[in-house]
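queue> pop job 88
queue> type: inverse folding (structure -> sequence)
queue> payload:
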């Protein structure tokens, strides 16, 4: 789908996706700040068992992911039903996973980087539950975006702020003002 067609979505929900360490949280935060949109961290929706499994170096399987994806979908549907734009992070590595998240308002924003670049970033992180040893399995599982998915792909060679600015420009996104005190 062309960026001008994506820009026509009235209250989009961006699913900032990609492998672990690609910058989903950082870019989603920059986008939320620029746009004034609600943001959710998909990792916060993982059941405790999933976090423990990944922290011990064991990759998640589909049985682990489906309940998590259902929670991510619930957040997306809540935004859609409220007519609100939003941003959520989610690896969304496979077509089947993305199919679970699809709504007419959803735009997948794939942050794309090479294993060497992402691996370097991942190795520098000390505050994340997922060990670098699982990164290769994510690259193996990652399926390319298809033409029938409302999506854009953005390289991660620039700063997170520059990436967020590029996404805003590509999709023609605009800021939503909220009353003081409204939660993001």
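queue> result:
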């Amino acid at each position: 789908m062309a960026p001008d067609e994506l820009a026509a979505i009235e209250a989009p929900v961006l699913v900032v996706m990609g492998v672990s360490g690609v910058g989903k949280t950082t870019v989603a935060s920059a986008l939320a700040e620029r746009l004034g949109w609600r943001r959710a961290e998909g990792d916060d929706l993982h059941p405790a068992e999933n976090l423990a499994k990944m922290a011990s170096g064991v990759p998640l399987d589909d049985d682990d992911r489906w309940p998590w994806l259902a929670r991510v979908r619930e957040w997306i549907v809540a935004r859609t039903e409220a007519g609100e734009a939003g941003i959520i992070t989610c690896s969304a590595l496979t077509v089947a996973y993305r199919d679970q998240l699809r709504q007419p308002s959803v735009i997948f924003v794939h942050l794309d980087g090479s294993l060497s670049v992402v691996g370097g970033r991942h190795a520098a992180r000390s505050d994340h539950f997922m060990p670098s040893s699982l990164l290769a399995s994510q690259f193996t599982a990652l399926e390319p975006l298809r033409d029938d998915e409302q999506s854009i792909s953005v390289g991660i060679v620039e700063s997170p702020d520059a990436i967020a600015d590029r996404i805003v420009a590509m999709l023609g996104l605009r800021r939503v003002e909220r009353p003081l005190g409204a939660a993001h």
